[in-house]
Fold these 2 entries.
Entry 1:
Amino acid sequence: MDWDAMRSRFHLPEGLIYLDGNSLGPLPAGTSERVRRVIEEEWGDLLIRGWNDGADGAGWMDWSARLGDRIGRLIGAPAGSVSVGDTLSIKVHQALSAALQMRPDRRVILSDEGNFPSDLYMAEGLIASLDRGHELRVVPPDAVADAIDDDVAVVMLTQVDYRTGRMHDMADLTARAHAAGALAVWDLAHSAGAHEVDVTAAGADFAVGCTYKYLNAGPGAPAFIHVRPDLIDAVRPALSGWLGHAAPFAFEQDYRPGEGIARMRVGTPPVLQLAALEAALDIWDEVDMAALRARSLELSERFAKAVAARCPDLTPALPSDVPRGSQVSFRHPKGYAIVQALIARGVIGDFRAPDILRFGLTPLYLGEAEVDAAVEHLAAVLERREWDDPRFRARRGVT
Amino acid sequence: MDWDAMRSRFHLPEGLIYLDGNSLGPLPAGTSERVRRVIEEEWGDLLIRGWNDGADGAGWMDWSARLGDRIGRLIGAPAGSVSVGDTLSIKVHQALSAALQMRPDRRVILSDEGNFPSDLYMAEGLIASLDRGHELRVVPPDAVADAIDDDVAVVMLTQVDYRTGRMHDMADLTARAHAAGALAVWDLAHSAGAHEVDVTAAGADFAVGCTYKYLNAGPGAPAFIHVRPDLIDAVRPALSGWLGHAAPFAFEQDYRPGEGIARMRVGTPPVLQLAALEAALDIWDEVDMAALRARSLELSERFAKAVAARCPDLTPALPSDVPRGSQVSFRHPKGYAIVQALIARGVIGDFRAPDILRFGLTPLYLGEAEVDAAVEHLAAVLERREWDDPRFRARRGVT
């Protein structure tokens, strides 16, 4: 992989070191023009006809499936098993509600403390709404394997912990879930575009994810859902919107689920966001995921090692032998202020309550120079106690 | 109102007569530039900081509420009672699930045959998922008033029928629902931006709608939901996503609903679509809704009268004394092919199964000249039997 060439595919503000692509990926160079064309030449000139007759032959109506297939390639999902749309929280609800239907005699959703809170909140809301005595059981990440028992209907996990970067073994935990008669729902928010993923080899029953982090599809970019092909016919969508209907334009009075993954669609997909996603995926077509992973680990190790040497006050969030995603995290009681001071120096990392500093290190637009410079800035912030400044105390935070 | 000046605010393809703004409104002139700025100057340059520090002072995080307030003005909803995001189908689910929670002893969702199918499908999916013996009762539009009895938990209606244009009396039916102890959920998909709406005067408990029709926010534009202010504190969201949490960035393990309407947010909002919505709302700030309605009726009557005179084969979908929205519809067994033949002549109307030809007539960008020309084309298609052409037989249709 020619990483320098890859880097030229992104717009990166001059002088900024961006280690927060795991919150919001940067702007691919082709996005603005792609969205402009969809707005002016498709919406503007084709108007309603754009749904069926897009400028490139396929109308907007097909994009959820077409872009789903392109994401599928990055997560090991076969064509026709991924649909794009809505938000990740909605996709979590779809996966969970389908999984619970398939295990009507079981009452436990098992998750871990490293899961992203919205996944847990969606499970809570679903459980309260169903009112059938389900329980959300949340255990520490390393206790998940042993907590999978015969009461568990579904194991719902985010593969890579949004705070520490800790990576679960998807194949192993899925096999354990299946052995206990449970289903596995995997959230790939911090996996898709971060490293190699193979939902098929892992046997994942459902996988969901967002596209605004490593995939670089922009703020509020749509989510995706994968359903194991041999399960999809058994899914009776709880969010049974018209675009998931077998014949949306027959305007029948009763719902009939669409063929295959199409039933996971709900309402009208966000076309401008899909255009931005498409521009982002053009870059991914050229990425060798194994090379990406190797380079990501190289940069991560370089960063972790240098921080250990230069910033003794920062505690690694993970032991070095624990598998991790494409981020490196540390703990410090003044984490929030440190990140703010770092941002003031033009190095954008991220803070996650209560005390985590996290840094996304993706090879697409980062190299040794940025990694080394970031460490220098971090060391300076700590050595000079720059974080101890009233400007950096008030808390505001995002994504 | 200076309607000619208003018209110049839209991009309309040369030579096209667009009577389908009730499917997808046309492109406002300022949209492309507004979206470009958000992509290049906010996403591109601010990156993750765009969530809190937008170029215009307010970050993306506030847009769901800010744009909700601007839509609120068009539907008579007070500030702080409307939230933007997701799709209309999801907003229907939110309103329905909340309403059912508030009437735990009742089992009927009452709707009508004129409701948009997705609303009925979402009710079906919710009922199946709850599995507590709820029933979706669907009656003819004019039978709704008498069907509201003590079993009804919620009356769910689309104010303006997407096929015929028939308009329900929102205040009257809401009063009847309340008198019977039921709640009212109103879908304003064909109302918002079409005529004056006052959800407050009507006492509507919940109102939902989309922004890609009369509001002109573009393909896949987000939906909105209004909850009556005195009810919102009792809403425990079933779709309890993190952005509806009281403190999304505290990353607490348990869900606590956000203050007021903020709890109706679910996941990360689609920022590019919100930018397009904002550009569309800039136009609406200048529209006098009473003048819009008067002009809409003027154009509609002119159209209906001329069609009656020139196209005797077309049957009006509604008696002339029935209140209607900003559209005029007819029935014809060859409706689909007629609409296709009309499109081939550069007049875009819409077909709705089984036999409805519908024409949206909004004064924002249509005047007497277009109305008269459309009638001439329609008469020619019928007189010359242009619809009887193999090109116009295959069915494909959208939105």
Entry 2:
Amino acid sequence: MRIALLAHEKFPDRAKTAVGVMRYGDHEVVAVVDRDNAGKRVNDLIDDVPDAPVVASMSEVEDEVDGLLIGIAPIGGGFDESWRPDVRNALERGLEVVSGLHYFLAEDDEFARLAAEHGGELWDVRKPSPDLTVADGVADEVSAEVVLTVGTDCSVGKMTTTLELVAAAEDAGYDAAFVPTGQTGIMIAGWGNPIDRVVSDFTAGAVEEMILEVGDDHDVVFVEGQGSIVHPAYSAVTCGILHGSMADKLVLCHEHDRDSVHGYDQELPPLPEYVSLYESLAAPVHETEVVAGALNTRGVDGDDAAREAVESYADTIDVPATDPVRFGMDEVLDDIL
Amino acid sequence: MRIALLAHEKFPDRAKTAVGVMRYGDHEVVAVVDRDNAGKRVNDLIDDVPDAPVVASMSEVEDEVDGLLIGIAPIGGGFDESWRPDVRNALERGLEVVSGLHYFLAEDDEFARLAAEHGGELWDVRKPSPDLTVADGVADEVSAEVVLTVGTDCSVGKMTTTLELVAAAEDAGYDAAFVPTGQTGIMIAGWGNPIDRVVSDFTAGAVEEMILEVGDDHDVVFVEGQGSIVHPAYSAVTCGILHGSMADKLVLCHEHDRDSVHGYDQELPPLPEYVSLYESLAAPVHETEVVAGALNTRGVDGDDAAREAVESYADTIDVPATDPVRFGMDEVLDDIL
């Protein structure tokens, strides 16, 4: 699928979804729509993704494109009215528009009408499927090994770790699948249930349903984790993913020097406690163990200091560890598979 | 509020909501609507609740009534069309109709129109408030002691234990509040968030919101727990309630001889493991401890055998225990408050 990525005024540093899609998605990105950087090339701004032109509006995007993907998420998840001409243009051309906003484009009268008139499609990835239901406790029946990333907090790198694991496993010759659970992961994968938006009773069931969908067609399934099991607001989502996935193995993700819950007045417990908490909580539903660690060292200056931080992290949680971005997942892949 | 309870063909044994409302609610029940038992009295059928006539239809209910409460929940939560004349009659009289069904009465065209025409009200207790959001992690700031019932499985008696705790605390002179989390509890209390129906990201937030609402006006708040922390489908709800409530104390509810998850092929872990799991999972958010046990001995013949089962349960989990229905909560109230 050839897509344009909408990322007005935020590309690349505050366009996590756009950059994630460029880095990990199977889409061919034909243009980034960002009025602030129009005229530049993507690789003028960021270098580890395929190059593409940056244009000021959707009307400047060449004809050979199948979809427009909203690649930024403003605080609150609203729709910025300055984007309306771009979405309108895409729908008038009969394209698919994909959005992870809280504001559902399919419920916008003009967009719904244009999509119907011109044969375009609107996919709000945050809107859960109406067919979800409670878990049957059978995710362990798939033939694939199921590996779940779990975290010490939000935003420590679980999605990146999961996607790097998929890439490393494929490089090593495994047939690997990615099971996304959040809107960016879903936009990268092109399918998936937004676990944080489903009815709480269906949290585990919505994960199980995805594992059943892909688990017999692959050697290994890597499930994107969310939140943390001791997060004061999001632990329910984490717990539902842990039990619904019935993961065989866990990878514990952490950010170096993070010592309190982001945005909350709560200290993180000692790191080894996460290992025992995740394992003991999972065990009655499905035995599992933390087999590797992924440390986010974006705040560490220099590879030597980062290497030291990773080694200390590995010692603390008593399993091999790496920084998936800085050092790659190859170093620990054998410990996982 | 004077109410009629709809319980066609299921009163009393399969009318858990109706009986719960009669036993624990503040409503004055003026009639039970059950075509199978019409002409009898409530106390001909069940003896530990206030008496009332049983009638065949809502049209036979005397005028001095404020509401009709749907006191039964068919499998699947649908609306039985044979109840339509009763609901229609109530709405034509301008009454409030309260329902815990999955099928929302307010979205039924005829019911919505009748309610509007006659000034009646429709309250679907399973429909979450649109104002819910993520937890701030501040439920521990209320002045009341917060006590949460937790369980080894679904349907072991958490709601009953919670309501018996409220009654025992009030008898002992405490100003106690009940925080309901499921539809029957909400119908008994007349307010509350249906935690199993909220968006998973808001699970903890929806509990926190209720505790903030009542926690400064009472000595103690008893929170109704849901599910179990190792339930393959519902653990997300349990985890969100545990962290959102920031409970100071836990009461562990169990049914005698239950050794596997109801409806699932999964053994329960040893009982002491529940104590350590609930406590260790809660601690990073808010320190808590299991201070008492509530054992459901409905399957045990005779008080002597039940007493023995309770004592064995207390020994196993190493805290005082009782059966709230058979022996009352007084026995352990001092250990809780």
